[in-house]
Structure formats: C-alpha cells, structure tokens
Amino acid sequence: MGDTEIKEIPRLGSWFKLPNLLKMKNEGRLFFQELFNEQDGNVIKVELMESTIMVRDSIAAKYLFDPEYITKGCILGFAGVSYNHCMTKGRYPSIFCNGADHDEKKENSLKVFHQRFGEIKVADMNKIVQGGFESFNDLKEGDDFEVAVDKMAFHFNAFLVLGKVIPDHANYRDWFERCIRPDLKQKLLWPFLYKHDERVTEEVFRQVSETPTIKNLEKIAPNMTDTKEGSTLDLMFNTYFNGSPLLGKYAISCLARYVDSLTDEERQSLKAEADHFLEQDPSQYDESFEGLELINSFVLEVLRLNPVHITGTYGKARKDFVMESKTGRYQIYKDDLITDCVMEMHRDPSVFEEPSKVKLTRDNQKVKENLVNFGGPWLQESTSTNRKCPGQNMMYMGLKLFVIHLTRSTFDVKSDLTYTGKNPKRGYGTDIPVVMKKFAYNK
Into which family does the record put it (predicted)? Predict the structure, then answer.
C-alpha cells in the first residue's frame, strides 16, 4: 500500500446509535478501546449522538488543535448535553465560540490571566492548598471527601484568577452545574427553571464583581475590547471550569494513584522531597519548585493515565481535507464531527513502555510531548486563536502542591480505588466515589 493512498475510515460498533450509546454508558473507555482493537488503524467512525470520527494518535489529533481545520460548538461530547447560555446572561464563554468572537473573548481573558499569574508566588498558592488540607481534618466519617477537594480546588482557582477566595462554594457549584444541562431537560423544564436560574446567576455575578480582579479590571487589563460585564461573565465561567471540574478531579486521581500505584519506598521518596521543599524559607519556593523531580514525574503520570475526559477536543471539520495519521491517510469531509480518544493516546505502547503503569523513571520531556489533556499539546502555548487552556501550568502547580501536602497526611480510604475507566461520568482516577474512614493532616 502506497503512502499516498487515502484509506476509508472504518465504521465500527453498531450501525444504530442506541446500542453504541448504551455501551458507552456501561463500559466507558473500554468500549472505545475494544473498537480500536478490532482493527489496525488509529482512525475510526462510530454512531453516537452523531456520526463521530475518533482518533488515537498524536499525528491525527493535531488537526483538532488547529482552527484552520476545526470549528467548535456548544455541544459537550456525545451525550446530548449542551451549554445553557442563559446562565451567562445570553452569552457563550469563549470556549464555545468560533472565529473572531472566540479570539476576542479569549484575548481579553488572557490579558487578565497573564497579569494575575505573573504576580502570584508559589508561597501564595501553597497557603491556599495548605488551608484546604487543614480543613480536611474537620471531616467526619461519611462526609463527602470529593466535595471537600472540589471546594479546595475552587478556592485555589478563584484566588488565582479573581484575587480572592470566594467562600460560597456550594452556590457557585450549583450555578456551574446549571450551565451544563442535558438538551432534553433544557427544552422541557426551562420555563420552570428560569426564575431560579436567574437568581443563582445574579448572586454569583455579584460575588465575582466584588473581587479585586473585577474591581480593578480596567487597570489589570487596559484596552479590553469587551464590556466589563462581558469580561466578568467569561471569567466567572472559566474560574470554576478550570478549577473544580479539572483540578479537583485530578487531585482525587493523584490521591488514588498515590495509594495504589506506588511502592512504600516511592512514597517515602516523594515525602522526603516534599519535606525538603517545605523546610525552606517560603521566599525560596519559586526558585526550587520546578526542581521537584519525583513530584513532577508523579503528577505527569497521573495526568497521562487519568485524563478527566475519555475524549478530549472535539469539533466539526471546517472543510474537506486529508488527515494524516500513524496508520495512514484518511479523507475528512466538511462538517464531519471529530474527537480524540485521550485515554488511548496517552497509553500508546509505541511511545510508552508499560503504558498502563505509573513509572517515576520516565523521561518527563517525552511525557510532556505526548500529553493532550488541556485542549492541545502540553508544549503548545495558549493564544487567542487556538483552543489551548491558559490555566494548564497553574493547574500543574496546584497538583504538585496537593501531592506535597498529601505526603504529610495519614488517612484510611474506606472505598475501592480500582480504576478501569468504565464509568464515563467518573472523571476521576477511581470507578466509584472516594470515601474516607479517617483523614489527618500533619502540618
């Protein structure tokens, strides 16, 4: 077969949507893994909510990260879930926009992020994470540990972006969950939900408007092209989206992998590195933070093995084009729906030895070159014209701090930490919620 031959994309699974959707619901990652294993290629087509092209190698996935080829929409994945723009006063956040609308909104947010992230010290971030761990000491058996971690992640991100911890985590979380709803619920129940949704939105908007970042928005990011209200709404969404659903879930994955994927010797080595770091004067944290080799390796392995989403970037083809991949060339047509199967990409045996294991001896640079957790390749810079998450590096730092303080904790996990990826609703490193019998943080 010649290198120039264009292959037909194989259609796998049932030709009907419902059987595939049920399998995805019941088997999660394993369903897609089995489909890919049915043939030798890295590009397949599956009937889900729409006919969907899935890719599992870095060469094919690069098209998903280039706005020349892909246009985004407000649909989230394949489960008939979409963004409820009424929760942001009729606006869509930049992540759901395209073209000039996306570029302008993201550019305004980037101005804020660059200013805020440039000011923050590791010692400041450490105080937020340490405070979260100290609050875990107050948890009783039966309390929802994952909600407590979610709250810490939200406080961390609110401080980073807005310059202040927002105490009302429950109300903010309720607002965010109302932003993302099943289509059917929006269509059938919207008239009955409207008044409550409006009240929740106004309260969260008021809290965000009173933060230092928003109060000083014109000074922090001069020459904004959006209105102050518009920029506030975009930051309001991104503060939670980049914090709790991502940072919180990755933190739980770190805990699970720390317990079930490391030897006692490896845990002791991580603790020794963490202790040495915390014994320094906080003014030295910034200089030595990047040099935490074992903690860097562990967090990168968690990001590789436990991406929050089974699939990552998705969108529709802007035009006809030929997609290159490791297993050949495939014809893509305008309006084809495409996504990358992140979990499979991160376990590519041609890239990683023993790809399903946590190995602290991996080449971190090689791992980074193959991670695509945050809307694009890890080493890609976030710009106004691409889909790369601007908060990637700050989340990475937050997870490292989480692991540092985890090494100073003693705890007894009551629940099973097994992870198979079978439950697509569990964007965590466990199949079921993490339940603690006891938790003690030893400052």
Answer: Belongs to the cytochrome P450 family.
